[in-house]
Design goal:
By secondary structure, this protein is mainly beta. The chain has one domain (41-257): OMPT-like (Lipocalin, Beta Barrel). It has two helices and eleven strands. It has helices at 5-21, 71-77, and strands at residues 41-60, 63-66, 78-90, 93-110, 113-135, 138-159, 162-185, 190-199, 207-220, 223-238, 241-257. The chain has a ten-stranded antiparallel beta barrel. The longest helix is centred in the first third of the chain and has 17 residues, at 5-21.
């Protein structure tokens, strides 16, 4: 029986198509292999003003002094302050350094005693964050790291105008912290942000915490301003020194992202 040349040509075409449909290494034009992309780096920098009030007690060489100072008193006695934050990240991971330094003089009266104190304080939050949710308008991260406190304190006490005590002490300690942060877009321009963490766990401080809630407004694609309220509390004691103080107040910041 003779074979039709057209039949042979059709069979050759069908056989040549088998490797593409059998899952061999022949590339498919309709489903190209994914192309590897470089890691996505991002960073942000923020400068802010934190109008802090102080509530609590500082103990120096066994002598206790209250530091219940309102924001207006802090402004009257503030020598100077600087604060800001920098974050750099790659894909879902990022590293954040949030720094605060202030020098403050304060005084208070308890019964017949007059307390005068000078405080120089550094607070540094150094954390690694991981993005858990990033679904358009909502972002949720978890983080862990350390909070570094460094405090120089001078205390003078007088009773009825007569000096009874004068002392100074310096302490630096490091607390582990764990926390979360959340951001939600409310519109194209407005957003809400919240941050919270706890720590200490008896490693250095008995307990430390932070809470922040703020509303932000995007000035452009890479810059925004935020207004909120922030509090940081620490309960630490060691060798006759004690620091059981809550710093809290209104926060206003400018942030740039790239």
């Amino acid at each position: 029986m003779k074979t039709n040349p057209k039949t042979l040509a059709a069979a050759a075409i069908l056989l040549s198509a088998i490797p593409a449909t059998a899952g061999t290494t022949v590339p498919s034009l309709t489903n190209p292999e994914p192309v590897a992309t470089a890691p996505a780096w991002h960073w942000r920098a923020a400068i802010y003003g934190w109008a802090t009030a102080l509530d609590g007690d500082v103990t120096i060489r066994g002598r206790n002094a209250g530091v219940d100072v309102g924001f207006d008193d802090v402004l009257d006695n503030l020598d100077w302050a600087v604060m800001g934050a920098v974050e750099i990240g790659c894909d879902k991971w990022s590293f954040l350094a949030d720094l605060f330094y202030a020098e403050l003089s304060a005084s208070t009266v308890k019964g017949p005693d007059y307390f005068s104190s000078q405080l120089s304080q550094f607070i540094g939050n150094f954390v690694v964050a991981y993005n858990v949710v990033d679904s358009g308008p909502t972002r949720f991260d978890v983080y862990a790291g350390v909070r570094v406190n460094s405090l120089d304190a001078d205390l003078d006490i007088s009773r009825l105008g007569v000096p009874t005590f004068s002392g100074s002490q310096s302490k630096t300690w490091v607390d582990p912290i764990i926390g979360v942060r959340f951001q939600r877009d409310l519109s194209e321009k407005f957003f809400f942000r919240a941050v919270g963490d706890i720590g200490g766990f008896g490693v250095s401080s008995d307990f430390t915490w932070q809470a922040l809630a703020a509303f932000g407004y995007r000035l452009c694609d890479n810059a925004s301003v935020a207004l909120g309220y922030r509090g940081i509390g620490t309960d630490y004691s060691s060798g006759g020194f004690g620091y059981d103080v809550i710093s809290h107040g209104v926060l206003l910041g400018l942030e740039c992202t790239f």
